[in-house]
Amino acid sequence: MLTDIWTVMRKELQEAFNLGDRVGKFGLLFMMFSFGILLPWQMGRSWVESPITLVYWSWVPLFLVNAVVADSFAGERERHTLETLLASRLPDQAILFGKLLAALAYGVGLTWASLLVGLVTINLFHGEGRLLFYPPAVALGVIGISLLSGGLAAGAGVLVSLRAKSVQQATQVLSIAIMALIFIPTFGLQALPAAWQERLWNIVSGWNVTQAVLVAIAVLAVLNSVLIGAAMRRFQRARLIAD
Amino acid sequence: MNTFAIRTQQLTRTFGPVRAVDQLTLEVRQGEIFGFLGPNGSGKTTTIRLLLGLLQPDAGQIEVLGVPVPQRAAEVRERTGALLEHAGLYERLSAADNLDYYGRIWRMPAAERNQRIHELLASLGLWERRNEQVKTWSRGMKQKLAIARALLHRPQLIFLDEPTAGLDPIAAASLRDDLRTLVEREGVTVFLTTHNLAEAEKLCHRVGIIRQGRLLAQGSLAELRRHEALHLEMIGRAFTPHVVTALQSQPAVKRVEANGARLLIELAAASDPAPLVKLVVEHGGQVEEVHRSNASLEEVFLTLMEEEEAHAH
Ligand SMILES: Nc1ncnc2c1ncn2[C@@H]1O[C@H](COP(=O)(O)OP(=O)(O)OP(=O)(O)O)[C@@H](O)[C@H]1O
Ligand SMILES: [Mg+2]
Hints:
The structure holds two protein chains of two kinds. Chain A is mostly helical. Chain A has one domain (about 1-240). Chain A has helices at about 1-20, 20-45, 45-50, 55-70, 70-80, 80-85, 90-125, 135-165, 165-190, 195-205, 210-235, 235-240. The longest helix of chain A is centred in the middle third of the chain and has 35 residues, at about 90-125. The chains are: A mainly alpha, B alpha/beta. At the A-B interface, helix 1, helix 6 and helix 12 of A face helix 2 and helix 3 of B. Adenosine-5'-triphosphate binds near residues 15, 40, 44 and 45 of chain B.
């Protein structure tokens, strides 16, 4: 089973890296530049010390995963390669998880690459002779949250891609979902009455970073398993052809 | 040892009001090239999907390589290869990478995989171009590549859904030649669909004729021809309605068609043409040549279609 998953993953990554269009590659470079160089350089030491960057690291994988996952099934259907793949010996789960993990590896891999570049940047520009690194709780948060938020995007992305009529439609739905995920909490908070905002702030500032990270990880893990479960139920050969 | 590669009984699949496959009972023997012949929309692709367990049947039984489908369809997919309705190639990958992917899917070890890819591409004349992106290839080359992909893991049985569809006559002939050579060398059973009768005549040992999901006939080409009456063709002049009527009154004659300088006579049974020639001459026809011919499969095909049509009304 693992061999089969790896076979699918390998080919998905091969296509994602070798063959992404120029717009995609430009977007990728822009992302890496912003989160690897520009933001760390501007924010200085708070880039590693403030837990606020956790929020960024939960967003970055969403965009990166989204860039490839929309194509996973909708692309194969659109380019008429899906049915041949389904006629092969591959078990359903190998196809599903191969595609899911490929999107995750791509998105989270590049996120972590930006993370490393960011660490290099900050140490180069703001190091002042000592090594700057995330405090343990933030480090755990950055790694855990980016991974799980990538998983969220991959799970949702596969589900949408399975149902979408075209790659374009899948991309649109997922982009809107990501925007909603980012903007609704951000603007929603601002729209709350001042008293509520204050009360919320009091609760949150009562938490220490470790607690907050653990809660976030737990919530994301639950969401991940729900989405993956849904994808497994949805992905059945006979249903894919008949619809 | 099971001598049937494929057996179906009363296989039925509907899509809403459409009976795409209707009580299909079919037998394909091990080692043969079986041609599944039918016009557009007759249910050929649906049949292949059912045989591979990609669609659920509404009723009936399927056995492929002795394995019941859809119950154990995964085993069938393990031991078969397919070129479906679409070639299913990754156009942005090279030819070699396409085959490599499917070699990995079938878990062929690297050395065997590379050797096999070389062997197949070389025998199809595609080896030199293996590193080109498939999207730059002609349709004929793509179809050959897809056949190589279907054969790659040495399956016992391959499904080919209209392998020459969309090819010009030269490319189609070249593909058929390659296909025949490969199939003979590998000893693989082939289930091939086509709406092209000439193709079935050139490639297939046995055929099944399907229309609107129903099997009209199956058997070897010789059997199907025997099923039909013999045909007589006269070339000459003055094949008047008078001549035609006279011929039609003969018990040995089933059907007559006058077509300018050609007179086509369908006989109920093999019989001596001399009295008929005499009859034509007596009624003022001038006969220059007489040919006897077995019905081509095309005529068999059309006749069966017409009979079916008449039945339906
Ligand atoms: N998924 C589907 N949903 C609804 N109807 C379908 C579906 N698949 C096939 N049909 C219908 O079933 C019938 C048989 O279709 P099928 O594709 O099997 O024919 P075919 O013999 O392969 O035709 P062609 O030569 O055009 O490829 C057609 O009337 C078709 O419209
Ligand atoms: Mg078809």
